[in-house]
Amino acid sequence: MILSNKTLKKYVIDTVRATEPVVPRCRHARECGGCAFQDHAYAAQVAVKADALRQIWATALPELAVGDIPMVASPDPFNYRTRMDYAANRGRMGLRRSGKFNWVEDLHECHLIPPAAFAVARTVYEHAIALGLPDYHLYAHTGFLRYFVVRRSPQDTLMLAVVTASREHEAEMAQLAEVALAHTEVHSFHWLLNDTVTDLSFGESIMHWGNERLAMQVGSRTLEIGPNTFFQNNVHLLGSLLDEVTGAVVDGGRRTADGGNVADLYGGVGTIALHLAEHVGSIVCVEEHAESAALAQHNIALNNVANVTALASDTLAYLRGQQPGAFDAVVVDPPRIGLGLEVCRELLRVAPTRIVYVSCNPLTQVEDTRTLLEGYTLSSLRGYDMFPHTPHMEALAVFDRR
Questions:
Q1: Residue 215: helix, strand or coil by DSSP?
Q2: How far apart are the C-alpha atoms of 263 and 271, rounded to whole Å?
Q3: Is there a domain that residue 221 lies in?
Q4: Number of folded domains that form the chain
C-alpha cells in the first residue's frame, strides 16, 4: 500500500527492477543516483508509474473510483532535463551515488542533458582542478568548489553556474568563465556563493559573464530565467503539459464574455500565465519567490503582453484578500508540500468555477483533493512522466465547482 513518499519510491523502484533489464546508454547508470532505471525498458517504467498513481488514488479516495489513470510518456526519455546540478567532491564531478550522500560518482558522460552540454560542464570542472581550485568537503566544510550547474533551453543554449563556498579566487573564476563562453552554445556564466553548511546548489550571485539570463523559447513565448529560478524540467513534455493546462482553463465553458479572469498561483517566472494569456481575459501570476516574481514581470514586458499581471506574494495571503467569485479559473502548481489545508480552504471560499492542479507530488495532491471535494468534483486526472529513469512523476487534476 502506497501511503508515503518513501513507500511510493520503494514500490516504483522494486517493481521496475523486477522487469526485464536492458543495456543502459550510460556506463555509470547502475551506480549513479541520477538514473535509477536506465537499465530497464522505458515502456515498463511508464506502466509501473501509471499503476502506482492508480494505487495512490484508489487507496486514499476509493469512493471516487478513478480506475486506470493515463500516464503521458516523455517523447524522449533522454536529453530531457533543463537543469542538472553536478557536485564536486574529492576530485570527482557528478551525481551522488544512490544511498551514499557523501560519495559522488565521477561522471564522464550523462544523458539526462545533451552530451555536448555535459561535456562543457566537465571541461570547466577539469580546468578548475588544473587551476588548483579545491573541491568542497561536505563534513569538514573546507574547500571551494561545490556545484557545477547546467541550465539548458529547449533550443540547447546553455547557462553555466559554479557554486562556491567563498568569494576567493576571482582571477581563476574569470578564467573559468572564459573557458565556458568559448563554447558558442554557452550564453551565460554565473558565479554563485553558498558559504553556509547547508548543501545547496543555489546561491547569492557574486558575478556573471555573458548574458545575465537564459532565454527559453516555449511555444510563441520567450521566457528568461536566472541561475536560481525554477523552470519545468522536461523540455520534451513541457509544451504538452502547457497545452493541456490551457485546454482545461479554456474549455471550462463557463467563462465571462471578456474571456474570463484567471489566477496562476505559484506562478514562477510566468510560464503558465504567458501561455494562457491569449486565451483569457486577464490573468494574475502570483509567486512568493521575489527573484522569480521579478522575472515574471520582466517576461511579461519582454513578450509585450497587456493582460497579465505578476505579483510577489505568498499564495495564502493573496487568496485571503480576494472576494468570492473573483476568478473564473485558478491554476495551481505548488511545490512538493502541496497546497495545504489553509490554501484549500481559501480556494473553497473564493470558489472559482474550475481549479486546474499541476502537482509534482501525487501524495500531497490526493490529500489536498480530500478538502477540495467539499465543494468540487474531480473532472479529469492524468499523470506525466516528467522525470524518466527516476521514481518521480507529476499529475494534472481538473476540478469543477459543484
A1: strand
A2: 13
A3: no
A4: 2
| pTM beyond cutoff 0.90 | yes
Cα–Cα nearest to 400, from 375, 382, 381: 375
Active-site residue flag, 360: yes
Per-residue confidence band for 256, with pLDDT thresholds at 50, 70 and 90: very low
The pLDDT value recorded for residue 255 is 46
Catalytic residue among 26, 35, 285, 360: 360
From CA 108, how far away is CA 324, in angstroms rounded?
Answer: 56
Question: Of 359, 321, 392, which is closest to residue 33 (Cα–Cα)?
Answer: 392
Per mean pLDDT, which range of 75-79, 97-101, 172-176 is the poorest? Answer: 97-101
The CATH number of residue 100's host domain is 2.40.50.1070
Cβ neighbours around 245 below 10 Å, total:
22
261 and 170 fall within a common domain: no
Instruction: Report the distance separating Cα 40 and Cα 37, nearest Å.
Output: 5
Q: Quote the domain boundaries for residue 203.
A: 83-212
For position 3, which CATH number holds?
3.40.50.150
Q: Residue 98 domain-assigned?
A: yes
Q: Quick one: 197 exposed, middle or buried, by C-beta within 10 A (0-12, 13-18, 19+)?
A: exposed
